Fold:
Amino acid sequence: MVYIKCRDVVAKISDIIDHEASLITRMRFHGHIMMCKNCRRYFDQFKKVHALAGKVTADDLPPDFEQVMGAVMDEIEGHKDA
Structure:
C-alpha cells in the first residue's frame, strides 16, 4: 500500500469530511491517521470546527461580518508579500 504524508492529510481532509474521497484515498488517509498522532489530533479538531461551522447561519453573523472578514483577508494577503 502506498502511504500518504502529513501534507496529503491536510490536502484531503475536506474530501474525507464531505464523503467525496475515493475508497483508496479514505483507506490511505485513515491508515495514516491511525499511525500519526499529530494528524489524528488535527483531524479531530477539524471535525469539531466543521461541525460547529455547519450550525452557523447568516442570521447568527453580525451585520458587519463581511466588512470585518474582508479586512482580515486583506491583512493576511499583506503578510504574504512581506
User: Anything to note?
Assistant: The longest helix spans residues 37-55.
